[in-house]
Known about the structure:
By secondary structure, the chain is of the alpha/beta class. It is built from twelve helices and eight strands. It is elongated.
Amino acid sequence: MPKTAESPDRTKLTAVHIASATGSRPLSMLALYDAQMARLAEESGIDLLLVGDSMGMVVLGLESTAQVTIDEILHHTQAVRRGAPHTHIVADLPFMTYQVSDEQAVASAGRLVKEGRADSVKLEGGEAMASRIAAIARIGIPVIAHIGLLPQTAAGQSGFKVQGREIAAAKQLLRDAKAVAEAGAIAIVVELVPSELAERITKLVSIPTIGIGAGVHCDGQVLVANDMLGADDRFKPRFLKTYADLAGTIRGAFSAYAEDVRTRAYPTPKHSFGLPEETAAALDAGDDAE
């Protein structure tokens, strides 16, 4: 396996490394969208970085992920690559950039790799998207599948709720997992699925499962960086563990700054630049009008 030390010369995970990461040390993945956060994640030893279409809601203030464009994904993927040159970067294929045809899926995936410099792409869907995965994989682009809750279409389908509770739905998810694995996916994101079902999926396929709201039995876990840092204290789903209170820290800092500006406590002489004596003397002598 590649080195995982927090060093700039660490070896990037390849598609082969990822596809074989079953039953070993679980993979850590974070969804994030900018160079600064990517640099910190790389320095912290995070295995995979996902430039997810969740940025539509987290960063751009959109109502859903379905509104995100491929150009927006490209823009943020390029930024994340600059921040984390030694980390495997996964870029999301946005809604309606792969559903139309295999050819469309291949063209979109090619842009994310060629222009965005992503190492692999991710798309939502199980059996129905197997041909898309196979087509992309055939041209040498690694694909990560995404089953369970599908955010791009959840609002108009079953809603944002746990998937696979009913017998038929559970069996479909097992078929989905098998289909995407056979199509050539290197890993499967399993979202909002009962832990016991996620465990069955994990045992069924030979590629790693990466869970989000799917319990501890997956081969890895993914969270949105902003969420696990507590940047939005209004968002508190059951599966989320927050590791910081960024919202509180940022509000406190913004309030302190605003108060310092109002009271002229900032900037102090320490934060200001002085004028050279010669220049000050010339201005005092009235040379400022020349």
